Amino acid sequence: MGAKLGITHTQLNIVALAGNVGVYTTGPVWGRIVDSRGPRILLCCAFVFLLGGYMGMRYLYDAGLPEGVNHLSVLSFAALVLCSYLTGAGGNGGLTSSVNSTARTFPDQMRGITTGLVISGFGLSAFLFSTISHTFFPGNTSTFLFILAVGTAFPMILGFFFIRPIPLPPHKKTPHDEYDAVPEEGAEGTRDGPESALLHDEDDAEEDDDEDPSTSPVYVAEAGVAPEHRRRERDVEMSPQLRFEGRELDVDHDRRTDRSLSRGAAITHDTLPNVYGLKLWKSSDFHLLFSILSLLSGTGLMYINNVGSMSQALYAFNNPHYDPKKAAQWQSIQVSSISLMNCAGRILIGVISDFAKNRFDIPRSYCLVLVSLTCCISQVIAARVDRIADLWVASSVLGLGYGAVFSLLPTVCLEWFGMPHFSENWGYLSMSPMIAGNLFSILFGWNLDKNEDKMPKHSAPAAVSLGSAVSAITARASLPSAEVRCSRGPECYVDSIYVTIAATFFAVGLSVWAGMRDRKKIKMALGRREVLRREQD
């Protein structure tokens, strides 16, 4: 498309980013709708947006450039950007409806793996569609866009009839689920009505300044429940059972199941987290997750949007026999590597986080460190690769980490901020990739455009033979300008990779901090719960 429509690398990044912006800016809107109205509205919108977006891109591609014009007009370029935005918005509508229904259907012990399995399809789609295209319609971009339009839009219609949340049985519900069915009362950010009981420890005033004021209160079981169940049954003070929303709770059983060091499990029926709206944006926990997701997803977006240019630069490096078809095959290998490992990462992190929590009492937030390290390692590998045959290693590791990011963060978001406004909160959190994603991708495009094929300003090192220098010059001279704009290998883009190495390393540090904060708050919640139980006894 870039070659046919005369689009620069920077403009291609803008088109690609428009799709990502469509994903992230619609998150809060889709989230609020699905939280309150269910998934069907989103699936209808997704069908229209996906079909219209990809078919619009196909129309612009087929129309091409008028005779004697070398680049796309401003109006046509704006239309291309809009179509890309619609595809992102539609894709996110389908994803949000599926993830929300999954989270509400399965218990907390299984949410990591079930959510990961559903989201894994989002990572596998690139491999699926690129394989179909290269197998049956090689080199036919118009047909590829048509397949994308039909292949992404019509499953939304199937989802309209089949996707719906299935309520959990009472014995399977977590505090998030119990609270979800309660009508909203009280101030924004909580559901504690005027008669709810708010427990404060005597040493609350001495707590660290960095504790998030919106998540520190511990709300007892009566908070936000129906009026007829708000008053405690004082005549059963010594009973091992308590009433919660009209049913009996086995306190001894709750004590046995409180070991898990996840924020949601630590609070069980005593704390009902429901942070949203203005309280969410004031939460330091939210900004911490927002920063981690921005850095990691921004790195992934930059790499994914530009791995084709990276593979072209490496394939053309010191290669006097440049073959566009072979170059396209190497590009396809990168796409497949990222897509397959993206899918694997989403499933694998779900298994790891569930196993760590259920078996070893390790909070899911601890897995943020593992995910951040994976992304950082991928960028270190990418900076050291100087042969096209080795680029798949960096692509695979990047896909693994990037997929894990978008599988783990929704579950952590649910645990930290609650189920009632889960999709809306995740929508706000998933806006974070727009910051680093836009910055890193445009920086990459600018860096690549700056290094367009020219004679290097510095002389070749003495260790380079005359034959090697002639081969490199011949290779650059023989390259079709529409296909490759930089043939100096890693030199074309490595400065951008150095930026993402620093960003992912910083994300590792933030992830360590997030785990430490989570463990501290879990201990505080468990301590407060014990105080409450002693009062009940």
TrEMBL record:
Compartments where located: Membrane
Origin species: Candolleomyces aberdarensis
Bilayer topology annotation: Multi-pass membrane protein
Pfam families cross-referenced by the UniProt entry: MFS_1
Transmembrane segments: 41-61, 73-95, 116-137, 143-163, 286-304, 365-385, 391-414, 426-446, 497-516
Name listed for the protein in its UniProt record: MFS general substrate transporter
Gene Ontology molecular function: transmembrane transporter activity
Bias-annotated ranges (Basic and acidic residues): 188-200, 227-237
Compositionally biased intervals (Acidic residues): 201-213
Any one GO cellular component localisation term in the record: fungal-type vacuole membrane
Region listing for Disordered, in residue ranges: 173-239
UniProt cross-references to SUPFAM superfamilies, sorted A to Z: MFS general substrate transporter (SSF103473)
Keywords, in A-Z order: Membrane, Transmembrane, Transmembrane helix
